[in-house]
Design goal:
single chain, 49% strand, mainly beta
Length: 118
C-alpha cells in the first residue's frame, strides 16, 4: 500500500512562506495523481492543488498565484510551496494520492498543521 508522510507545517506570520513536503513509499514508485487538501476547524476538507501523472497542475481559486505544487519523482516527494500566506490559510494540510486519475482519493497522509498569524 502507498504510505504518505507530510512535513513542513509550522506557525508563520502573514506574508510569509512555507514549503510542505510529502514523501511517498510502500510501492514501486511511479507518478501518481497527487494533491494537497486542507481542512480548517469546523470546515470541510478542500482541495488546494493537484498534479496529474502527466504533470498537469490545477489550483483552488483562493491559492492561485500564491501556491505552487511540484513533484520530485527521483525523491518520491510532493511539495507545496506557499507564498504570501494569509490567516485564512490556517488549516491542517493533507497529502493525497490515487492509483488512476479516475479513481477516488485512496491514500492519505496524517496531515501537517499550518498556522498563519496576522
Amino acid at each position: 500500500d502507498v504510505q504518505l508522510v507530510e512535513s513542513g507545517g509550522c506557525s508563520v506570520q502573514a506574508g510569509g512562506s512555507l514549503r510542505l513536503s510529502c514523501v511517498a513509499s510502500g510501492y514501486t514508485y511511479r507518478p501518481l495523481p497527487m494533491a494537497w487538501f486542507r481542512q480548517a476547524p469546523g470546515k470541510e476538507r478542500d482541495r488546494v492543488a493537484q498534479i496529474e501523472s502527466n504533470g498537469m497542475r490545477t489550483y483552488g481559486y483562493s491559492v492561485r498565484g500564491r501556491f505552487t505544487i511540484t513533484q520530485d519523482n527521483a525523491k518520491s516527494t510532493l511539495y507545496l510551496q506557499m507564498n504570501s500566506l494569509k490567516p485564512e490559510d490556517t488549516a491542517m494540510y493533507y497529502c493525497a494520492a490515487k492509483p488512476f486519475s479516475t479513481s477516488g482519493w485512496t491514500y492519505w497522509g496524517q496531515g501537517t498543521q499550518v498556522t498563519v498569524s496576522s
